[in-house]
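Researcher: Next entry: ABC-2 type transport system ATP-binding protein (Hydrotalea sandarakina).
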Amino acid sequence: MQKKIIEVKNLTKNYGSVQAVKGISFDVYEGEIFGLLGPNGAGKSTTLEIIETLKDKTSGEVWVDGYSLDKNPNEIKQIIGVQLQLSGYYPGLTLAELLDLFAGLYNKKIDKKKILEEVKLADKAKAKYKELSGGQQQRFSLATTLINNPKIIFLDEPTTGLDPQARRNLWDLIKQIRLSGTTVIITTHYMDEAEELCDRVAIIDSGKIQSVATPDELIDNLVATGFERTKEVKKATLEDVFIHLTGKSLRED
Ligand SMILES: Nc1ncnc2c1ncn2[C@@H]1O[C@H](COP(=O)(O)OP(=O)(O)OP(=O)(O)O)[C@@H](O)[C@H]1O
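Model: Predicted structure:
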């Protein structure tokens, strides 16, 4: 039986009269990549920020690695990695300086070289954040989740705005991080990303969970209802053509 590392029970969040999260429950197992999928405004970020201890809930219960969000938020902070919002704050600092700054916030000693190597930015230690490409900035943002050597990392739409090569590269990095035993929770509205990365997904719409299962189970369940695609599935997509013509390697480096 897999260990539950996150348990969410009947979670709600109201913003004034808007009920953004309407009593959702789900578990995340240790070592998995768990996806929260949903359209804009579904409540994904709100749910993530509550579990990250960054936002108050209205009601419900959350446990992270056995710690109660109500009673032990500080213990939870010690074992999670969140993407620090960098853009706009310290664009003139170098990556090495930023890592020192964040390590100071966590009161941790870190191996900057190792962290930058993990996200393929070892040669950019002296580059300023603002000089990085979009893909490099996202990789650095991923690196900031690792500073605390966390058991769980939270990634909120990590590949938004990236080109196909940079997206695939980030997917590989996320899979590598998971291989080291870290649990990953990711929000996305890209279905291909969820299919490629996630062991299990929760589909959220208008603050409610519609379904939680593996991507294959969700597809099988739909097919079992008699669903058929109206058009014949193409043997390749335009993205396949793009990758075939332009290659998989990153352009920015
Ligand atoms: N600080 C806030 N004050 C008031 N309403 C908010 C606030 N933050 C979010 N909302 C509302 O709560 C709902 C859920 O927002 P949330 O950002 O959690 O959704 P999301 O699924 O992450 O969407 P997206 O994919 O667009 O990021 C939306 O209706 C949003 O307008």
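Model: Note for the record: The first helix runs from residue 44 to 51.
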